[in-house]
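Quick check before the chapter quiz. The format below is the same one you will see on the exam, so make sure you can read both the input and the output lines.
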Amino acid sequence: MSTFSGLNAATTALWAQRRALDVTGQNIANVNTDGYSRQRADLRAIGGSPVPAFYSTSPGIGAGVSAEGVTRIRDAFLEGRGHAEHANIARLTVESDAYLQVEAAFREPGDTGIQSLMGEMWSAWGDVDNGPHELSTRGAVLEKMETLVGGLHFSHASMGTQWKQTRENLSVLVDDVNKAAESVAKLNQAIQRATQSGLPANDLTDQRDLLIMKLSDQVGAVVRPADDGMLDVVVGGMALVTGNTASALSLAGSMSPDTVAADPPRLVTASGGFTVRAGGTAAGQLNTLNVIIPGARAELDLFANNLAAALNTAHGNGYDLDGNAGKDLLGTGDPLVPLTASSIKLLITNKREIAASSVAPVAGVPALDSGNADAIGQLRLSTTGPDAAYRAMIVELGVQSAVTQRNLGIQQVITTQVDAARESVAGVNLDEEMTNMLSFQHAYSAAGRLVTAIDETLDVLINRTGLVGR
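Here is the expected output.
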């Protein structure tokens, strides 16, 4: 290799090591940047010419080094796992929160819970049993029953409010998804143009991957590689982004929790109205709207019906202070209105109409017997009564909530492990970058020293060997 070709090799080394130092500096600068993928300068040896030619030969040493490009470090398999696990944890988080809010609507255990309100009502019937002739104890029964009815109304209304808020949140999420999809399509187009022009697009790709991970959290999006560095985004088998074109989603279905069975809320394509099987947060919210809240409300409605049936049947077996047969205690007051936890109300307001006696009037004279009040009070001990049914409902709700929270805990561990694996590949490690920086710095210094050595060699050759002027 001639002296001048050695100088060229040293020059390429200086340029390549400086490029590698620049890349290392970029990695260090973005160590805390969300979504940034570490980069690596690809260095390749420049070999000698393998093609023979007249008056030219190659010694086989090579002609230096070339910094071919800058590679963005990512593992496609781990990214796919990350999309799936983030969608799962987003769904379970929403469902766990929904169960916690439903449990809060029942306020169990607590002094204001329905179980406590029923206990106070049964105790009031016991007071009537002990003093059937006192109007004050009969009035207390009506007050406790009115409080219980109010508790049913509150729980039912709380879940209705939760349902409406969840649907509103889902509507906002759909708008956000559509905007993110448009951004991904625009980034696809920019990346395609950069790739076709031979320009770097690492920063654009980082922005796109950050948006795709967000879409995975929101709707369970997955990706498919396309041409020229582009990615297609798919949700539930439906293409959300194809190349530089984005489709839109919309929310269809019932606007009220009372009509969910007939027209369940669902995600559909804005064009054509095809149902989309979404994952992530959207899946959790749809499950909340269609299963969790309607199921809890239906159980509460069934309890209200059973409570009304049990009290009305027992009350009808007795007689009031005027000797009349007991009337219905609970109902809607309108036979055309179905009885639910929101429509149930106390039908009796007159204290004298409390049918505490189990003995019919004798010769038109009402009895002051309290057998029926005692029978009503004993309903709390029945294994098939309203108390037992309510406890079974709350236990079932607690089990479902506990299972969801346990699954969420397991999923958190899995997601953390996958994210750690992704970070180990794509994240910036300062210790590693420091090592690379020192390596490139020493290489740059050595290349500079090589230039100095060649310069001294040429100086001796030209100025000290007496060749000049010959």
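If your answer matched, good. The first helix runs from residue 3 to 29.
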